[in-house]
């Protein structure tokens, strides 16, 4: 698998069930400008975690073609551990990935 540049420093871990986890590094440079004094992990970082998790759990060598939809329901902070649940399905001769990101330490969305 090809390696790529990423704005997220934390490692992606994939367990035997295909569940992806990533611990948000407290010292990740992505926090430098988002927001000084009250760091929040930016949405682009969450999308990147899903992208890297999808690459690591893909049923074949794939490339990202589109992001159809995103919804952010709460903030992610330095040190949070994220769980990314990924489901793959074959669609029209290709693959579609559906993902949900959860932070067990965060309260559930309203």
From TrEMBL:
It comes from the Bacteria. One of its GO terms (molecular function) is lyase activity. InterPro entries: ApeI-like, HotDog_dom_sf. Its EC number is 4.2.1.-. The keyword Lyase applies. It is an enzyme of class 4 (lyase). Residues 19-93 form the ApeI dehydratase-like domain. Keywords: Lyase. It holds the Pfam family ApeI-like. This is 3-hydroxyacyl-ACP dehydratase FabZ family protein. It comes from Actinokineospora soli.
């Amino acid at each position: 698998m090809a390696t790529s540049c990423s704005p997220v420093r934390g490692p992606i871990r994939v367990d035997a069930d295909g569940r992806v986890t990533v611990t948000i590094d407290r010292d990740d440079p992505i926090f430098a400008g988002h927001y000084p004094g009250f760091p929040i992990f930016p949405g682009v970082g969450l999308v990147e975690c899903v992208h890297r998790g999808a690459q690591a759990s893909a049923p074949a060598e794939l490339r990202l073609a589109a992001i159809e939809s995103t919804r952010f329901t709460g903030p992610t902070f330095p040190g949070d551990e994220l769980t990314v649940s990924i489901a793959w399905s074959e669609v029209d001769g290709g693959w579609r990935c559906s993902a949900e990101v959860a932070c067990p330490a965060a309260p559930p969305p309203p």
